[in-house]
Amino acid sequence: MHIPEVFRAIYDNHLYEYFIINRSFEIIYYSKKVDIYCDKGSFDGSKTDIFVAIPELIGIEDELRDVFDGKNDKIIIPSIFKAPNNYVNISINIGRASYSDMGEYESVVILFENITTIVKAQHKALQDHNEKSLLSIELAQKNAQLEMFNQDMQRLVNEEIGKNIENQKLIKLQERHAQMGELIGMITHQWKQPLSTINMNCGVLQLKCKSDKLTPDILEKKIENILIQSTYLNQTIIDFQNFFNPSKKLQKFNIIDTITTLLSIVKNDYSLKNISVELKGDTSVEIYGYPNEYNQVILSILQNARDAFVAKPHDDMKIDILVSSRDDKSIVKIRDNAGGIPKDIIKDIFNLYMSTKTDGSGLGLHISKSIIESHLKGEISVANIDDGAEFCIVV
């Protein structure tokens, strides 16, 4: 049998140290390194009281006697910290049996099992678990804070979007009012001639009547002339009302017919400034959209050209409006020979408040771009050509 060798192998490969004590609780034998588990200066060899060497046993004297008396064969005190940095399991086991053969023992073995590595691993695992738990809690708190932040940001974004929408509406209204003021001025000029003609015809009728020279033929001709002029005035007002009556529904409209209505309102103002406006192209081109908003875009472009001519007039001032189509898309090009747009701002010409005029609002072309792209789902662009600028509208 190789029992001693087996015990030696087990002992050498495990961190065990021990005391053997007698019934008087005195140490009678011990392992070589057991003193590392004793309080400093408390152990000086055999005959030392076990309670001095191991204070952790104080208070369990009765339990120790039960082991000596054979009433209990083992006591385990787990995970005791022993300086400087050791953790041990202390187990109290029966030792050598008494010669009295009454089930009693003359010695008890107190075994120290070094479990420092295990305890440190457990502590590390517990620490990692606690850190992960704390991290999870902190992460949950951060996520909650982030969610609240996102909600606050979304609320602020929605508020700003609402404000921007209201601002855009206000900007469009301001531009609309500006255009209305300009058109009223144009209509005032257009009405002067027909009103003068009506007054003149009424004066002739009055003179003929007083001199008894009013004949049926003269009366008929003058009344006819007055009716023609009044019809013109009435049509001008109708065109003006239609232009500023907002389109509520998408409708199919003819581009040349729509632009012709606009030109009937403004042509006199342009003629007075010696600016010729010519509309030509495919008379069959039609699109779905809002005709009044479309004309608002055309008017903004025409007004920019007119203002450029007024700033730098010359002998051959003209605006050409060309209507065509390609691949089921309408194309309207508005060309002028007013000198073009400065190269340093042409790329920003559609931006809000960008204007080439010292007293310009910078609203018209920005709103025009919004109408074409957002309302009509089209495109608008501008480029300098020859001695002027060309706007291209594709819807």
- Beta-strand content estimate: 15-25%
Oligomer: single chain
Cα distance, first to last residue? 105 Å
**Which stretches are poorly predicted, pLDDT < 50 over at least 5 residues?**
358-362
In the CATH hierarchy, the architecture of the domain at 250-394 is 2-Layer Sandwich
- CATH 4th-level superfamily of the domain at 250-394: Histidine kinase-like ATPase, C-terminal domain
* Structural class based on helices, strands and sheet pairing: alpha+beta
| CATH class descriptor name of the domain at 250-394 | Alpha Beta
Spatial strand sequence of the major β-sheet: 2-1-5-4-3
What is the β-strand count? 12
Major sheet attributes: 5 strands, antiparallel
Mean pLDDT: 81
Query: From the alpha-carbon coordinates, what is the Rg to the nearest angstrom?
Result: 54 Å
Search tags:
alpha+beta; single chain; 395 residues; Beta-Lactamase; Heat Shock Protein 90; 5-stranded mixed beta sheet
Structure description:
With 395 residues, this protein is of the alpha+beta class. Among the domains are: 3-114, Beta-Lactamase, CATH 3.30.450; 250-394, Heat Shock Protein 90 (2-Layer Sandwich), CATH 3.30.565. It contains 8 helices and 12 strands. The strands form 3 sheets. Strands 2-1-5-4-3 form a 5-stranded antiparallel β-sheet. Helix 7 runs antiparallel to helix 8 (364-375). The chain starts with a helix and ends with a strand.
Outline of the structure:
50% of the residues lie in helices and 21% in strands. It has 395 residues and is α+β, with helices and mostly antiparallel strands.
